Amino acid sequence: MLVHAHPDDETVGTGATMALYAAAGVEVTLVTCTLGEEGEIHVPELELLGPAEADQLGGYRLAELDAACAALGITDRRFLGGAGRYRDSGMMGLETNKHPRSFWQADVEEGAGHLLEIMREVRPQVLVTYDENGFYGHPDHIQAHRVAMRAAELATAEGFGPAKIYWTAMPKSVLEAGISAFAQSSNNPFEGIERIEDFPFGTPDEKIAARIDGTDQHEAKVAAMRAHATQIPDTSWLYSIAGNFGSEFMGVEYYTLAAGQKGPGDGPYGWESDLFAGLPV
User: Fold this and answer.
1) Is 37 in contact with 140 (CB distance < 8 Å)?
2) How would CATH label the architecture of 2-170+205-259?
3) Which of 148, 162, 206, 252 has CB 3.0 to 4.6 Å from 3, enough for a Cys bridge?
């Protein structure tokens, strides 16, 4: 089970992982917490869908999410508490954080209760979400973390909590490689960044627990990204990575282990290659 904040987060952060396990026949459940109503719109003819106009972007992004999940092979996709219960809060510090339906204003116990209902049904062995900072500080990502972790705690108290909980992560060595690889590129996504410390995210390699190689699912991830056209324009740096360094930068995803026993791995840090490593078959 993966708990994400907005439509498109599932693809950018964990798309290769989801596609890999879905292709292997593993039951994958995606829970999205908001419709992404406050997202930027990169399709000019759809600008009137924005919150200052018709405020219908969320409904449109629901359709984008459906198309992205189809590309990834995901058939079990749900919204926390039902589609539209919680609204996109926008970036940290904006007035949209104060909207009465914003996810940032949501009661964590209530949200965890909605997620617990889904957990009771699907009984996930592995739960994936964000770290305490929501990977990069977005309020809805932070709230998704809080809700997911509380729901896991409640599920464990009832006797069916996930055996392992992972948080999305990016090794500092990969960020360093990205800075170097794109240094001479005309479309450099790391332009202006010279030090790892300048990133709002990045995990020391020794703290990474799992490296999931989904390079065979690279095309599925790119197709899912294209499904989220309002959020990911054709000029996005993500496509630069996909085109020039696809298998290395787009098809491999990393995680820290927040709960559960680390399974067998290899390499200098013993990174797992399977999120189910060490669990009974």
Assistant:
1) no
2) 3-Layer(aba) Sandwich (3.40)
3) 148
Task: For 142-195, write each residue's pLDDT tens digit.
Answer: 999 999 999 999 999 999 999 999 999 999 888 877 666 665 555 555 666 666
Confidence (pTM) = 0.94
- Looking up tokens 């459906």 gives 66
Rounded mean pLDDT of 217-245? 85
Mean pLDDT of 247-274: 92
Binding residues for Zn(2+): 6, 9, 141
